[in-house]
Amino acid sequence: xxxxxxxxxxxxxxxxxxxxxxxxxxxxxxxxxxxxxxxxxxxxxxxxxxxxxxxxxxxxxxxxxxxxxxxxxxxxxxxxxxxxxxxxxxxxxxxxxxxxxxxxxxxxxxxxxxxxxxxxxxxxxxxxxxxxxxxxxxxxxxxxxxxxxxxxxxxxxxxxxxxxxxxxxxxxxxxxxxxxxxxxxxxxxxxxxxxxxxxxxxxxxxxxxxxxxxxxxxxxxxxxxxxxxxxxxxxxxxxxxxxxxxxxxxxxxxxxxxxxxxxxxxxxxxxxxxxxxxxxxxxxxxxxxxxxxxxxxxxxxxxxxxxxxxxxxxxxxxxxxxxxxxxxxxxxxxxxxxxxxxxxxxxxxxxxxxxxxxxxxxxxxxxxxxxxxxxxxxxxxxxxxxxxxxxxxxxxxxxxxxxxxxxxxxxxxxxxxxxxxxxxxxxxxxxxxxxxxxxx
Length: 440
Ligand SMILES: Cc1cc2nc3c(=O)[nH]c(=O)nc-3n(C[C@H](O)[C@H](O)[C@H](O)COP(=O)(O)OP(=O)(O)OC[C@H]3O[C@@H](n4cnc5c(N)ncnc54)[C@H](O)[C@@H]3O)c2cc1C
Known about the structure:
Elements: E1 16-20, H1 24-36, E2 39-43, E3 55-58, H2 60-66, H3 73-80, E4 90-94, E5 100-104, E6 116-119, H4 120-133, E7 137-139, E8 144-149, E9 154-158, E10 163-166, E11 168-171, H5 179-184, E12 191-203, H6 205-209, E13 222-229, E14 232-239, E15 244-252, H7 267-273, H8 279-286, E16 293-300, E17 320-322, H9 337-355, H10 360-390, H11 394-399, H12 410-413, H13 417-439
Parallel strand pairs: 1-2, 1-11, 2-7, 4-13, 11-17
Antiparallel strand pairs: 3-6, 4-5, 8-9, 9-10, 12-15, 12-16, 13-14, 14-15
The structure holds flavin-adenine dinucleotide.
């Protein structure tokens, strides 16, 4: 496989990395593995690439990763289909009166660390095609049924009985991960978070035709949030020059737990929740085609004790790891789920290069040690933002409107995953390698 020099690929390491799942986590791990000199191959259960999902967010700490790919061409392609809020910013309204409490300006554009909010399926297609262009083998229509490992190798079994062997297996198989059960040695049951999200993405013809909603589409992209109805918040954006729109409404829900993205929702239920709200919210909701409405139950998982087999209390030989949502599902209010999966992928590829083929175990343990505490802290912000928006003290907001703004935490956004692992990787690998030797 020829890797164009512009991708900064390093000498071959001889490490074969089997990646399960071609979501943003798996694709990024594969792309970064190519950059670091490994040989990745992805197995994905979807029979073909489909444009699925709706809005997804990537913070500047993800943009910094995308910006390094193909001399910035990938980030430029993503920019074209992502929301542009340089002019409009983010209007936060009081939920019942509709008054705009604050207009939160977007930070100036930084092409070395861009921010992307756009359609999950469309952005995913760009990354998928880039992985293919780099020569990553992506085997579609291949459901991984089993994982195995020995002291010297790790691998997977497919539905048709095929066994594939490599040096490392990465379980980036999403929230309903099978790899998780294998790594942990028990099934980690999801809990209801007590919340669900209704979400929808559709084209704006009806919005444009209505004088009350036209304002959101006729002059380009917009972003508005109605905050702190009793345990509910509503976010609404228009994208692609105002031609598409999407909204998400987080609300209390103690019912069934389902992590599917395509659970159908009912408009009448949404309208009922918004009964006492600013009437503009119901106006926006009423433009939604019912078949485009998804009801997605937000599942919570306690942080896993480990992401790596044979580490801590986990059984196994230390060659299988979890990455992205399989290791750490996020609440949407963190707006960091996909971004953290990207940071995982970068970190994993670099530690494997540093540790080398003869020290896969030490490398994977270092991957966990470098990522674990940061991910936990970022996960927590999903809860704090949701709670801030659901229990708003309006007296305080009157005095300090900034207190209700969407938090932009510098410790999250300024992080450069590649630089960080290059800086701390050797020292941490030295420690984890000692722990591997002591265990042997
Ligand atoms: C179809 C879909 C739509 C989504 N839509 C949105 C959205 O609109 N907004 C949003 O914020 N997030 C969405 N997400 C989730 C979001 O992409 C992730 O939270 C984030 O990007 C982290 O990605 P990940 O790679 O860890 O997991 P995922 O993106 O969930 O990817 C996991 C991949 O593993 C594959 N897989 C699972 N089990 C197996 C198996 N046994 N064998 C082979 N392959 C397997 C899945 O098909 C999937 O492609 C969606 C995810 C999916 C799969």
